[in-house]
């Protein structure tokens, strides 16, 4: 082991300052022993370059393994998310189809109701016209009675038409409310499923 000072020069220095040769040599050998002991203690905690390179390679290989594991885990998580996304898309398409079916049903019901109301109105109109014809024949007999009957029937027709119009408007509003309620319910269910799957 190298010594980083000159032991002979130290012995000479001690002799010049009043120590004997034997005392100087004992002091220098004690110093050398103390230094060697300290260096041994320091070298126990130190690592050689080769050991450091080996440890660094081990750490790098461990990091590479962790990276590979993370990439595999990320790919598997991504595929799971993709499959979940596909399931949600299919469910949304089914819900969309159900909503469109409900809308077409409601439209068909509304058209049917409107057609029924139209035929009823036409029947009422034809009935009223037949009454009017009979009253016209009777009016030829009595003109004054005809005027009264016509005004009464006109009033009845107006009130019935107004009633029918109000009924149609109320049916329309009810159907629109039902349609809006159905659509919002379906959308709420779809959003609930979407929330659950997220």
TrEMBL record:
Belongs to the CCDC90 family. The chain crosses the membrane at residues 178-197. GO terms for cellular component: mitochondrial inner membrane. Keywords: Coiled coil, Membrane, Mitochondrion, Transmembrane, Transmembrane helix. GO terms for biological process: calcium import into the mitochondrion; positive regulation of mitochondrial calcium ion concentration. The keyword Metal-binding does not apply. It comes from Leiothrix lutea (Red-billed leiothrix). It is found in: Mitochondrion membrane. It comes from the Eukaryota. This is MCUR1 regulator. Gene3D superfamilies: 1.20.5.340.
């Amino acid at each position: 082991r190298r010594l980083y000072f000159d032991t002979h020069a130290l012995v000479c220095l001690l002799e010049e300052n009043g120590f004997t040769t034997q005392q100087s040599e004992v002091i220098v050998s004690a110093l050398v022993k103390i230094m060697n002991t300290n260096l041994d203690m320091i070298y126990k905690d130190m690592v050689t370059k080769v050991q450091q390179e080996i440890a660094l390679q081990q750490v790098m290989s461990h990091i590479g393994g962790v990276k590979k594991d993370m990439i595999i885990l990320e790919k598997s998580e991504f595929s799971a998310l993709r499959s979940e996304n596909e399931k949600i898309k299919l469910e949304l398409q089914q819900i969309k189809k159900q909503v469109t079916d409900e809308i077409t049903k409601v439209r068909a019901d509304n058209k049917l109701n409107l057609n029924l109301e139209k035929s009823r109105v036409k029947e009422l109109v034809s009935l009223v016209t037949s009454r009017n014809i009979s009253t016209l024949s009777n009016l030829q007999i009595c003109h004054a009675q005809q005027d009264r009957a016509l005004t009464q029937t006109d009033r009845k027709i107006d009130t019935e038409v107004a009633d029918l119009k109000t009924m149609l408007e109320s049916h329309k509003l009810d159907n629109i409310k039902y349609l809006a309620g159905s659509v919002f319910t379906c959308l709420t269910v779809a959003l609930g499923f979407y929330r659950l799957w997220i």
